[in-house]
């Protein structure tokens, strides 16, 4: 039953009523389960990812692709570099489900072994880009002043150069090199700027939060704050752009190999096989089809993973 408050001192119709505590559900709404374990942003993100079908599908595909890259001998016993003109453009047969290319090489074996090359270029490029770009962006955002101004202008210079065009120019200068690291370093040279800008913005929004102020008050040095507190709490947007960009580096490697200035011709890669099969598009399109599908599935898997991670770590940008 509601209780009448100040009924004597108020005019008729202006009485105030306060419901008793037993009649309100506020106690249940405001209650906190103190026995529940502590949670964090990463735990919440993992809980969201586990319920996301996009993450599950892309995760299964990526695990399968990585397994193929690590253990290609499980899927084929053929040597991808063994070619004989007697099998030129031969049809599919037992042990050769995809047939043979123009040089008489087993297409299935080359698709399987090409997984390692394309995946290695994508992962290595992403690791270098994330490390160097995060370091430059974090220093620029944390130090500010002339350090931020100089580093930001350097980032602007590299941002003005298209990655693929810059990679073509640089690779033309080192065509004598026969190493996969040539392509990795060139892609990293023009790809770190996007990560640096994201890292700078994340550090700028993190360095003035309460935990950094409290750490400074307890005697922590600026560099310790940067590497112990600020950078770990700024990793979410960096992880998002890394997972999304990995697929683009795989595509860039395939494009450079297609143009004949990427990996050496002796290296089995999807881009090189696509380049070699382009003249057969009308007569034997399946020779071009298989490496193209493998490339498309791999890139799609990493893009789907990037979208799922973005939705988990940045709820404001959720697509569904």
Chain-wise SSE layout:
Layout (H helix, E strand, L loop, with lengths): L2 E3 L10 E3 L7 H5 L10 H10 L2 H18 L36 H37 L1 H15 L3 H11 L6 H27 L3 H8 L4 H9 L4 H24 L11 H8 L7 H29 L7
Antiparallel strand pairs: 1-2
Helix pairs in contact: 2-12, 3-4, 3-12, 4-5, 4-7, 4-10, 4-12, 5-7, 6-7, 7-10, 8-9, 10-11, 10-12, 11-12
- Tell me the strand percentage band: under 5%
Q: SS-based structural class?
A: mainly alpha
Helix content: 55-70%
Average per-residue pLDDT, rounded, comes to 81
Could you walk me through the main structural features you see in this protein, from its secondary elements to its overall organization?
The chain has a two-stranded antiparallel ribbon with strand order 1-2. The protein is globular. It is 63% helix and 2% strand. The chain is an all-alpha fold.
Give a quick precis of the structure:
The protein is built from 12 helices and 2 strands, in the order E-E-H-H-H-H-H-H-H-H-H-H-H-H.
Give structural attributes.
320 residues, mainly alpha, two-stranded antiparallel ribbon, 12 helices, 2 strands, 2% strand, disordered N terminus
